[in-house]
Amino acid sequence: ARIVDAGSTDDDGVVEAALRPRRLADFPGQPKVRDQLGLVLEAARRRGSPPDHVLLSGPPGLGKTTLAMIVAAELEQPIRVTSGPAIQHAGDLASVLSSLTEGEVLFFDEIHRMSRPAEEMLYLAMEDFRVDVIVGKGPGATAIPLELPPFTVVGATTRAGLLPAPLRDRFGFTGHLDFYDDADLEKILARSAGLLEVESDGDALAEIARRSRGTPRVANRLLRRVRDWAQVHGTGRVGLDAAHRALALFDVDEIGLDRLDRAVLDALCRRFGGGPVGLSTLAVSVGEETDTVETVAEPYLVRQGYIVRSPRGRLATPAAWQHLDLSPPAGAQT
Ligand code: ADP
């Protein structure tokens, strides 16, 4: 597992739960989504009825699960957690739906990964608060409609485009989460440092924020490694020196690139003169699977403007040459 991976890991699960903000007012960043969601929830609270179903979309580690829990807390309702991959058969979903209590929040992580039949059952349930339970098999099977109490689905997806339109349309409110700026990440880090009961300096938190790839999950993980370093080799305080040394130890550079990201950039510039070079050739030259390079390293490099995907292959941009302290050779295509 990479230290800069925005996806969850088991080890993170427990610590992450402790660092989650519990209420909307404690949730730094994403001002648009926060205000919109705040309005939707407050109106529902005043009406005394469940709000529209909520869809949260955006890359991993930006706070979708956290916001789902906040929705339940703000509505003072229990939350049931499930995920697309966990629901493979319509029957799995029927049993979850039929056990919901009135007003309960059903959090559906990775909702785009649900099976088709389950999807159809879900959108009918979201619209009419009803499921058809199939009794029996073969020609004698009959569908018995079962009324459900009103409930709220909070769906999370990294790929809103993959949701079929009928399902997407059942969500009355969609919030799009975007990468955080450094100032918001610093606020998150200051709060996390408090919860972890470590003293910290502002410049150290700013340094960690800069290397966190716009992602709170990464920021919190880097903070924990800097804390470790400070407790073992330093005074226990998260200061700038501890941040520099710990992040150097874990190979996270000034802009949050790790060993693999840099190997890809380095190969692209030094070995292939800045490209264009095919993805699989690039992957072989850094000794990785094509898929790993494409899904793990490349998205951030592309987003930050170090690599461009062209029909003829990958190209290094001037920023890539600059980051490696190299000058592009005459004739390099950038
Ligand atoms: P996602 O579901 O989008 O992958 P999570 O909600 O699980 O992301 O967030 C990952 C980690 O980042 C959690 O530990 C959470 O506390 C933290 N986090 C995410 N967004 C924020 C935020 N706005 N403020 C504070 N912590 C956050």
TrEMBL record:
GO terms for molecular function: ATP binding; four-way junction DNA binding; four-way junction helicase activity; hydrolase activity. Mg(2+) binds at T65. DNA binds at R309, R314. Residues 181-251 are annotated as: Small ATPAse domain (RuvB-S). Coiled coil: none annotated. Residues 50-184 form the AAA+ ATPase domain. Its main location: cytoplasm. Residues 254-334 are annotated as: Head domain (RuvB-H). It is found in: Cytoplasm. It catalyses: ATP + H2O = ADP + phosphate + H(+). GO terms for biological process: DNA recombination; DNA repair. Keywords: ATP-binding, Cytoplasm, DNA damage, DNA recombination, DNA repair, DNA-binding, Helicase, Hydrolase, Nucleotide-binding. GO terms for cellular component: cytoplasm; Holliday junction resolvase complex. The keyword Hydrolase applies. InterPro entries: AAA+_ATPase, AAA_lid_4, DNA_helicase_Holl-junc_RuvB, P-loop_NTPase, RuvB-like_N, RuvB_wg_C, WH-like_DNA-bd_sf, WH_DNA-bd_sf. Pfam families: AAA_lid_4 (PF17864), RuvB_N (PF05496), WHD_RuvB (PF05491). ATP binds at L19, R20, G61, K64, T65, T66, E127, D128, F129, R170, Y180, R217. Its EC number is 3.6.4.-. Belongs to the RuvB family. The RuvA-RuvB-RuvC complex processes Holliday junction (HJ) DNA during genetic recombination and DNA repair, while the RuvA-RuvB complex plays an important role in the rescue of blocked DNA replication forks via replication fork reversal (RFR). RuvA specifically binds to HJ cruciform DNA, conferring on it an open structure. The RuvB hexamer acts as an ATP-dependent pump, pulling dsDNA into and through the RuvAB complex. RuvB forms 2 homohexamers on either side of HJ DNA bound by 1 or 2 RuvA tetramers; 4 subunits per hexamer contact DNA at a time. Has 3 domains, the large (RuvB-L) and small ATPase (RuvB-S) domains and the C-terminal head (RuvB-H) domain. The head domain binds DNA, while the ATPase domains jointly bind ATP, ADP or are empty depending on the state of the subunit in the translocation cycle. During a single DNA translocation step the structure of each domain remains the same, but their relative positions change. Homohexamer. Forms an RuvA(8)-RuvB(12)-Holliday junction (HJ) complex. HJ DNA is sandwiched between 2 RuvA tetramers; dsDNA enters through RuvA and exits via RuvB. An RuvB hexamer assembles on each DNA strand where it exits the tetramer. Each RuvB hexamer is contacted by two RuvA subunits (via domain III) on 2 adjacent RuvB subunits; this complex drives branch migration. In the full resolvosome a probable DNA-RuvA(4)-RuvB(12)-RuvC(2) complex forms which resolves the HJ. This is Holliday junction branch migration complex subunit RuvB. It comes from Janibacter cremeus.
